[in-house]
Amino acid sequence: MSRRARIVVVLPALAGLAALLAWSFTGLPGFGSFRGPYGILLNRVATPERHMTNVVNATTYDYRSFDTMGEEFILFAAVIGIVLLLREDDRDRRAEDRVRSEMVRSGGGLTVGIGVLVGLWVVAFGFVTPGGGFQGGVAVASAVLLLFAAVGYRAWSTLGNETVLDPIEGLGAGGYVAVGLAALASGLPFLTNVLGPGIAGTLWSGGSAAFVNWSAGIEVAAAMLLLYAEFLEAHAVPVMRGAS
Amino acid sequence: MIGTLVPLQSVGFALVALGAPAIVLTRDLLRLVIVNGFYGLVLVVLFVVYGAPDVALSMLVVSTVAYPLVLLVAISRVRSHGRDT
Amino acid sequence: MSFLPYAVAGWICLVGLYGVVTSRNLVHLAVCLTVTQSSTYVLLLAVGYVRGGGPPIFKGVKLGTSAVDPVVQALSLTDIVVSVTVLALILALALDVSRHAGTVDPDEIAGMHG
A216, A239, B57, B74: most buried by Cβ count inside 10 Å? Predict the structure, then answer.
């Protein structure tokens, strides 16, 4: 179908969709008057019951941890798809590419360490303040990516290659399921919070949901690093070989 | 607190409503990366004003590093494929 | 004023869909798809908003202060991270297409034969 015909067909369709959306939005309660019982109940109950002050993460990793497991596996499957699609036959990881300026190399190298620490801190305090496994995992991956930008491709490829990252990603994804199976083994439903709740507002809160949080953080960090590694390999290796 | 939130929210919504057509109407690919980054930051401001710091953190780490990297690598490879044939 | 957020979410969704249909470039198409996806986050968070409520974090805050809905935030934050991987997958597919066809224009690709 030619482009002009596509535009002629899509505009009435979008108008119809807009009418449907407008009609359905008038059935919603007005902005600011949230009536849903589940959210209000969780706000009241999560901190006394599970001793977690961050109710959003309590929902993600404890009350609805089964849904988060599904999201993690979407991540896992998408990264496998990317690795398969971007696979090329001749890969030269020993290719040379160094950043020339010494100040950038040393400053960048230091910042990588600081960035990884900040990312791990965001993961660790997920149940106390805003943060958690997903955000902290992406932050750690972004800090390690700085190795490529500030130091060079060779330094990046010591950490950003499949032989290092695949086991870590598997550890994260498998650890999540293992924590759930541990609850199953002691006779409770899958992924119940088995350890004691701990003290609210400190690192010792969350029970076994803290292990779930860390597994999710490790898995997300490894998956994002694998994604960056595949894309950078598709980009950097031809550039260094002088092809483009 | 209630009084100060409403103008901030209106500004946030206006910026988001302007940013979406800006992305659609940008044809140059490199400019698209920058406009997308700006749209991501505007969404972060909107999520903070919504009282959702976790979602804002998530969008921030994702739209400042992951999106531009993936887009830039794709653009560079697409251009070199286009030049080879 | 109280239906403006929903209208903005609907507007973003429609604009993104228009961009997907009329795009001349597969990379631009993928970005418009993420714009449509962001409209779902705006809508979800708008539904869960409580007027005058703070974030659902109770560290240092007395229990019982009004807070917004945590469930929709839990849905949105995992989805944002996953959407990056899906975007990367779409771009990897587009790279594959461009390697074989030499172009990323959807109209030109449709005309190519094995």
Answer: A216
What are C19-65's pLDDT values in tens digits? Answer: 999 888 899 999 999 999 999 999 999 888 888 778 888 877 777 78
Instruction: Please classify residue A110 by burial: count the beta carbons closer than 10 Å to its beta carbon, then call 0-12 exposed, 13-18 middle and 19+ buried.
Output: exposed
CA–CA distance, B13 with B62 (Å, rounded to integer): 21
Q: What is the pLDDT of residues B49-74, one digit of tens each?
A: 888 999 999 999 999 999 999 999 88
Radius of gyration of chain A (CA): 23
Q: Which CATH number does C4-108 carry?
A: 1.10.287.3510
Domain with A76, as residue range(s), is 35-243
Q: Is residue A22 part of a domain?
A: no
A166 CA: distance to closest CA in chain B (Å)? 19
Place of tokens 């903070």: B48
Are B82 and C102 an interchain contact pair (Cβ–Cβ within 8 Å)?
A: yes
Please check whether residue A201 lies inside any domain of the structure.
yes
In this structure, what token pair is assigned to residue A26?
Answer: 């008038």
Total structural domains within chain A: 1
Judged by CB atoms closer than 8 Å, whether chains meet at A235 and B77 is answered as yes
